[in-house]
């Protein structure tokens, strides 16, 4: 079961269920989220290894649903949900 689908433009889109899972994880805790900690949280939900968290985070950021901030380790930027992301999530709860 894939979570990314290819648009006619060649860009990947993600299924809504993985968007919801990621945004719920980000909104549930103020912890310092990066791709690794978010991947571990998804694994605990039974979704581990099913998606590329960094790629999905970039797509969510482009939609204005999360922000990506630099970290000490450039390979592990920090993720946080935006107010737009919270509203989007509330509309699907």
Give a description of the structure.
Strands 1-2 form a two-stranded antiparallel sheet. Mean pLDDT is 84; it is low at 1-12. The chain has four helices and four strands. By secondary structure, it is α+β, with helices and mostly antiparallel strands. Strand 3 and strand 4 (78-81) form a beta hairpin. It has one domain (11-90): Winged helix-like DNA-binding domain superfamily/Winged helix DNA-binding domain (Arc Repressor Mutant, subunit A), CATH 1.10.10. It has helices spanning 16-28, 35-44, 53-62, 83-90; strands at 4-6, 12-14, 66-69, 78-81.
Core attributes:
93 residues, alpha+beta, Arc Repressor Mutant, subunit A, two-stranded antiparallel sheet, 4 strands
In short:
This protein is an alpha+beta fold and 93 residues long. It is built from four helices and four strands.
What portion of residues is helical? 40-55%
Strand content: 15-25%
H-E order: EEHHHEEH
Counted up, domains total 1
Return the CATH architecture.
Orthogonal Bundle
Secondary structure category: alpha+beta
The strands making up the biggest β-sheet line up spatially as 1-2
Alpha-carbon distance between the termini? 23 Å
> The CATH topology is what?
Arc Repressor Mutant, subunit A
**Could you give a short account of the major beta sheet?**
2 strands, antiparallel
Tell me the Rg in angstroms. Answer: 13 Å
Please give the count of helices.
4
**What is the CATH homology-level superfamily?**
Winged helix-like DNA-binding domain superfamily/Winged helix DNA-binding domain
